[in-house]
Amino acid sequence: MPDSTPDDLFCWIGDADLASWAQAGGDRVAALIKEQLGRALKPANGLGPVKTLVSQVPFRMTHLLSNAPGPVADGYAAWLGAPVKVHRVELHSPIDYDAVFKVVDAVLAGEEEGLRRSSGGRAFHLSPGTPTMTAVWVLLGKSRYPARFYQTHKDDVIETEIPFDLKVDYLPSLLHASDALLESGVAASMPPASFGFVTARDPRMREVISRAERIAVRDVSVMILGESGVGKELFARGVHQHSRRAGKPFVAINCAAVPKDLLESELFGHVKGAFTGADKDRDGAFMAADGGTLFLDEVGECNLDMQAKLLRSLQPSGTDGPTVRRFRRLGGDKDQAADVRIIAATNRDLQAEIAAGRFREDLFYRLAIFSLRIPPLRERPHDIPLLADELLGTINANFVTGEPGYVHKELSARTKKFLMRQPWPGNVRQLHNVLVQASVLSDAKTLEPAFIQQLLMEADPSGRRDVAPAVGDDFNLEDHLDRQRRRYIIDAMREAGGKVTAASRLLGYENYQTLAQQLKRWKIQWKES
Fold first, then answer.
1. d(CA 319, CA 7)
2. What is the DSSP letter of 330?
3. Residue 483 near residue 490, CB atoms below 8 Å
4. Nearest residue to 52 (alpha-carbon basis) of 162, 160, 158
5. What is the pLDDT of residue 54?
6. Which residues contact 366 (CB under 8 A, 6 or more apart)?
7. Positive or negative, the Cα torsion across 342, 348, 351, 354?
8. How many CB atoms lie under 10 A from the CB of residue 11?
9. pLDDT digits (tens, 9 = 90+) for 407-453
10. Which of 211, 267, 462, 515 has its CA 20 to 30 A from that of 110?
11. Sign of the C-alpha dihedral, residues 298, 300, 304, 308?
């Protein structure tokens, strides 16, 4: 090291660093970390990357970046035994390049003046944190914020030379590349993340999974939001499986599928004689889920009367535990109690429902202590090949057991690309249905794009659904455009009641002769109504 002012060190606090602190601090520190992070860390040996470096190389100041709760970050900083400044940052995902870049850039920019006054330089520690964090340190350290780089391996400290320079005018264009372009490269190279029966490669879904893993260990109510078919119940089951209730019942009730006059009995149970046909006492879903989890699917479909009864059962008593629910069977006169974690789900915009007076705000906040929003399939296309392979594997396994001679189906590379271009309004449920249809109806071993396209179009006889065409040797752009024109002409004629002049105006034609020629060309006949 030179004799001038020591450098300022910048680095993240990684799990290996916290594990080393826990190893040194014993049960008390380990318990604090588990309580604050909601998870236990793997045992560690040695000092950890950060303390290994600062114990061997002098730095003017060590800047620790962390999104861990204050007691954890501050406790680790005190244990480090060096001049330290902790930078508490908001970071929802450690693998989101854009978010990590913004956080690191903000910290470095904020310390720029202090470095100038000290006449020292910068050093970045590459070892703690995720590969995303390492990449951001390298990009910034070779461009906007020139720095030394260090790595540690066990007890060894290595000052790392990175033998290239990034032009200052190139980095901004790289870091501000479109999200789709960036995520395309990142998502394709990432190993899939799993959560129960959910598997994902897309960065958005990985963030949701990371959030779900943290929430699962806390015994609190969760609201899962998302369009129909995105897999809300799979996430609910994943939260249950990752919680301390994993070995206890998981009871799912679809509030939209139960008749409104029977939902109270379905949830709370009833006593004999409560209504016609109630010939004996019956426990409801709350009692069936005692000790476990109750999943209220499509809770937004409950009417206001049912919402009031749900709210009453979720109100804390002050004497029981936070998950003990008190309720009465339909027709009963005594309270019952069950220890139940509530997970609810809906495809409705509950904030809009609250504003319209159709959903109780107090119930929403009782159910949504935490929320998980599952992105639709069209927003995470890089998950589609992974999902399609998994779904098709399950379909093959099911069919081969009941159909001797069934030929396992597979997807060509072109078909996977075709699937990624579709909008999938029905999300994973629609993708599954299409693959089932293809497996039944196709005699070929390999499912090709044209066959899938035909199934998607047949599923919407009106022809209104937007199906991205399968581009290939058998694709003809003019034919495809003609089909689209014909579809809109039929829509316009239907809207105009068969009047050619009115339909021409709807289509934006300057005169009706253009439309008349097209009607003749495609042999479309229409009687005025």
1. 56
2. B
3. no
4. 158
5. 94
6. 221, 311, 314, 315
7. negative
8. 25
9. 999 999 999 989 998 999 999 999 999 999 999 998 899 999 888 98
10. 211
11. positive
Specify the length of the chain in residues.
529
Q: What is the pLDDT of residue 6?
A: 86
* pTM (2 d.p.): 0.57
Cα(291)–Cα(109) distance, integer angstroms: 51
The list of the chain residues with pLDDT below 70 reads: 1-4, 163-191, 460-481, 483, 527-529
Residue 326 and residue 268: Cα distance in Å, rounded?
A: 10
Per-residue model confidence (pLDDT) at position 475:
59
Token pair 């409950």 is found at 302
Compute the distance between CA of residue 399 and CA of residue 331 in angstroms, rounded to an integer: 47
Cα distance between residue 390 and residue 397, in whole Å: 11
Q: Is 468 left (phi over 0), alpha (psi -120 to 50) or beta?
A: beta
CA distance 492 to 512: 12
* CA–CA dist 320, 340 (Å, integer): 12
Joined tokens for residue 54: 């600062």
3-state secondary structure 101-120: HHHHHHHHHHCHHHHHHHCC
The pLDDT, as a whole number, for residue 191 is 66
SS3 221: coil
**Calpha distance 216→15 (Å, rounded):** 19
DSSP assignment of 432-447, as one string?
A: HHHHHHHHHH--SSEE
**Do residues 45 and 67 lie in contact, with contact meaning Cβ atoms separated by under 8 Å?**
no
**CA distance readout (Å), 256 to 26, 123, 259, 345, 452:** 51, 58, 8, 11, 31
Chain position carrying tokens 């090949």: 385
Among all chains, which residue has been given the structure tokens 């934006």? Answer: 508
d(CA 323, CA 338): 8
In Å, what is the CA distance from 45 to each residue of 20, 76, 125, 157, 252? 6, 16, 19, 16, 44
Beta-carbon contacts of residue 145 (< 8 Å; ≥ 6 apart): 108, 122
What per-residue confidence (pLDDT) applies to 490?
Answer: 80
